[in-house]
Amino acid sequence: MFEKLQSRYIFRGEIVLEKEFHIGSGKGDARTDALVVKDFSNRPYIPGSSLRGVLRSTIERIASSIGKNPCMLVNKGCVTNSGELQEEFKKILKDKDKTDIESFLNDDSKICPVCRLFGSTVIASRIRVTDLYLKNDIKLTAVRHGVAINRDTETSQDKAKFDFETVPAQTRFDFEIIGENLDDNNLALLAIGIQEMVDGDFWLGGNTARGLGKCKLAGLKIKYFNGSEGLRQYLVSREDGLDEMSKEDFFNKISIVVA
Ligand SMILES: [Zn+2]
Questions:
Q1: What's the 193 CA to ligand 1 centre distance in angstroms?
Q2: 7-18+49-77+112-136+170-258: CATH topology
């Protein structure tokens, strides 16, 4: 079930924090209870998996509002969440009939549109979210003090004061998503999520209920090739061989799934 490489889309820009954020590392030290995740050079970064998770849930929320029924929310019509469809697929795999396998995988009543983009147990993801590294030098991360939960007990779980490290507002991170073999439906769903990011309706990390983690995507640029001639150019000239897609053309894809 290997898919030929037919197209590649590279989305780049920068994530700008409009509010400070905290993506926890699960670790603390003598000074702070909860440290942010840091890369190999001890600088804060955003794991691609964190961004991917938020992007997926953003797209799921909107897709379900326009009748696209992502399986995580409606819990039906997708092999990811349906025991019945999983049994059906197991049987087909056992028979090893290539045509049956392909027709199952191509059937939109068996795999929801969000799984087609982000992947599931039976199909590969079409997008890869790169880890996001710092673009600018930042001053020491601030520490905020939480509200006391229980002042009478002094156990470590119920500390009167809970500190967590934050990355300050205006911090910028390099953003990159690579998409492969995206069809118009994939592009449309991705455009819905990325449009939310560009508009700043996007929150990363923990404590978002307190307003932390609001960020936006700035300077979005899209480069791509599509088809075997484009692939040839890309193999020879790498990124110089790619075409550029305007933001307008990309966001216009949304009309495909809204209509
Ligand atoms: Zn699904």
A1: 16
A2: Alpha-Beta Plaits (3.30.70)
